[in-house]
Amino acid sequence: MLARQRQAVILEETRRAGAVRVSDLVSRLGVSDMTIRRDLDVLAGRGLVEKVYGGATTVTRPEGAGPDTCLETRARHEAIAREAARRVRPGHAIGLSSSAVTNVLARVLDPVPKLTVVTNSLAVADIAAASAQPDRVVILTGGVRGGTDVLVGPLAVQSLRGLHLDLVFLGVHGICDRAGFTVPNLTESDADRALVEAGRSLVVLADHTRWATAGISTVAALSEADVLISDDGLAQNAREVLSAHVGELVTVPVRRDGHR
C-alpha cells in the first residue's frame, strides 16, 4: 500500500472514530510503528489530525468556536509560517519545537542558506534535513522518543542546555492570560522550556483557535514571548490581552485558498 493510500485510511478512521492508536494501525495496515508515526506527522502537518500520546485525534477546536475545515487550518499554518520565516536570516541558528505549524515552517525555510536547525522533533528534523541547501545543519537532541515522535526526558533537556540560538519558534497547544503558553504533555514541556531558554528571542506560533485553551503544563508566560504570530481570526479581546503582555503581536491575513 502506498503512503497516500495509508494516510487516506488513517484519516478516514480518525474521522470515523474520533481517534486512532498507533498500535491498532500497525496491526491493521501491516507496517512498522515508525511508518505509522511518519504518516501521522504528514497528516498533522497538513492540519488534518492532531497528534497525541500513542496516536492521533480529530483536530479539536475551543468550545463555542464556529465551523472549521482542514483547508482553513492548513491555510492558517501556512500564513503564520511564512510570516515567521521572514525573521530568519542566512547564518542563523534557530530552534523549532514540535507542532503542526513548525512542521510547515521547517518546509518554508528550505530556501534559506547557512541555517542551523535545532529540534527535538523527529518530523521537523526529517523535513529540515531534506533541504536542498548543501550547507544546512540539523541538530536533533538526544532523549527518549515520546508518543508524538518528540525526544523528551533528561537527555533531551541536557542537550539543549548550553546552546545559544538566535531564534526559537515555539508551537503551542493553548494560550490563556493566566496559564500563558501551554502544552498537553508533561514530558514534552520540560524539553520545550529548555529550548525556550536557549533562544535569544522567542517567537510563538499559534493560530486563533489556541486562544482560551489551556494544556496541562505551562511552557512560558505570555511576557516571555518577544513575538506572537497568529492569524486575523483572533478575537479583539484576545488581541487586547496579548498586546498588553507579549513583546509584539502580529496577526496575518488568511484566505481559504491558503494564500496571504
Averaging pLDDT over every residue, what do you get? 89
Low-confidence stretches: 62-67
Structural class: alpha/beta
Rounded to the nearest angstrom, the distance between the terminal CA atoms is 36 Å
Structure, explained:
By secondary structure, this protein is of the alpha/beta class. It contains nine helices and 15 strands. The strands form four sheets. The chain has a seven-stranded parallel sheet with strand order 6-5-4-9-12-14-15, sandwiched between helices. The protein has a three-stranded antiparallel sheet with strand order 1-3-2. Strand 10 (174-176) and strand 11 (180-183) form a beta hairpin. Helix 4 packs across helix 5 (100-108). The radius of gyration is 17 Å and the shape is globular. It starts with a helix and ends in an 8-residue tail after the last strand.
Layout of helices and strands, plus pairs?
Layout: H1 3-17, E1 19-21, H2 22-29, H3 33-45, E2 49-52, E3 55-58, H4 70-85, E4 93-96, H5 100-108, E5 116-119, H6 122-129, E6 137-140, E7 144-145, E8 151-152, H7 154-160, E9 167-171, E10 174-176, E11 180-183, H8 186-198, E12 202-205, E13 217-220, E14 227-231, H9 236-243, E15 249-252
Parallel strand pairs: 4-5, 4-9, 5-6, 9-12, 12-14, 14-15
Antiparallel strand pairs: 1-3, 2-3, 7-8, 10-11, 11-13
Summarize the structure.
With about 260 residues, the chain is of the alpha/beta class. It is built from nine helices and 15 strands.
